Each structure stands twice: as C-alpha cells, then as structure tokens.
Amino acid sequence: MGSGIPSTTFHLRTPVNGMWACDVPRGWTYSATTSNLDCASIQGATTTKFRLVG
C-alpha cells in the first residue's frame, strides 16, 4: 500500500485456436506473430504476440 508502483492486472483465459497470446502455452504452436505493446513488462517496449494453434 502506498508504494507508488503501478500494479498489473492479468485476465487468464483457457487457450483456444486463433487466440492472440503473449506466450505460447505448453503443447501449443502458433501460426502468426505480431509486434505491439500489449505484452510489454516495460512501458513502451515492443513485444511479440502469437496466434495460437492447438
């Protein structure tokens, strides 16, 4: 409380085919990638998202 550090909120979902994800879960592969800021742990850093194939 009062640390001044912004918190991060995660919304966990069960992986499905075609879902864009920040990480590829075990047992899954991906069919495409995209670069954006959605998965960045550092503000403004470009990261990769993966389109899942199960």
Number of DSSP-assigned strands: 3
**Which geometry do the CA atoms define?**
flat
Mean pLDDT across residues: 87
What share of the residues lie within helices?
under 10%
* Structure class: mainly beta
N-to-C series of helices and strands: EEE
Low-confidence stretches: none
Spatial order of the strands forming the largest sheet? 1-3-2
Give me the number of helical elements: 0
Main sheet attributes: strand count, strand direction, barrel closure: 3 strands, antiparallel
CA gyration radius, whole angstroms: 14 Å
% residues in beta strands: 25-35%
Distance between the termini: 40 Å
Annotate the secondary structure layout.
Elements: E1 20-21, E2 29-36, E3 47-53
Question: What's the gist of this structure?
Answer:
Helices cover 0% and strands 31% of the residues. The protein is mainly β.
Q: Overview of this structure, please?
A:
- With 54 residues, the chain is mainly β.
- It is 0% helix and 31% strand.
- The chain is flat.
- The model has no long low-confidence stretch (mean pLDDT 87).
What descriptors fit this protein?
single chain; 54 residues; mainly beta; three-stranded antiparallel β-sheet
